[in-house]
Amino acid sequence: MGMWKQSATVGELNAMQQNSIASFLGIEFQDIGTDFIVATMPVNERTKQPFGILHGGASVVLSETLGSVAGVLCAEPGSVVVGLEVNANHLRSATDGEVTGVVRPLHIGRSTQVWETHISDQQGRKLCVSRLTVMVKTPSE
Q1: Which active-site residues does the annotation give?
Q2: Average of per-residue pLDDT across 43-52
Q3: CB 117 within 8 A of CB 59
Q4: Has this prediction a pTM greater than 0.90?
Q5: Cβ distance 127 to 59 under 8 Å?
Q6: How far is CA 59 from the centre of its chain?
Q7: Cys-Cys with 29: which of 13, 71, 122, 127 at CB 3.0–4.6 Å?
């Protein structure tokens, strides 16, 4: 299980996202590794801005979804993980296809965690780098 304090399958993570912004945007979890989680998101009418390119806010939703889920899996069972701050650097645009986000920890503390997500296109070109800081509230707090 590595750094994860809770286990989940890709199918369980996808089921958790039903009826949320993640499912509306088409975000799908693909893999859980020893220190990373991978999810994809289509570049389509729901995720593009009016100029026909991937909306930066959609990239942030992908990043926050990945980081929040990773945060929960690294926290004690019953803990609540909430975002404190998110930022994103948009490096290039995408007009179609699918993007892939990979999240890894920068810091896993008792009360805060920092997660970094790299989002790439289908050619492996980096589109966005985003960092999410979350607060962890344990069941005893």
Answers
A1: 64
A2: 97
A3: no
A4: yes
A5: yes
A6: 9
A7: 13
Domains parsed from the chain with CATH numbers: 10-137 (3.10.129.10)
Per DSSP, helices labelled H in the chain are 10-16, 21-25, 56-73
Burial code of 78-106, b = ≥16 C-beta within 10 A, e = fewer? Answer: ebebeeeebebebeebbeeeebbbbbebe
Q: Is the pLDDT of residue 54 over 90?
A: yes
Identify the residue whose tokens are 């810091």. Answer: 107
From the list 81, 78, 46, 50, the residue with the least C-alpha distance to 65 is 81
Q: DSSP label at 5?
A: S
For the stretch 2-37, pLDDT in tens is: 799 999 999 999 999 999 999 999 999 999 999 999
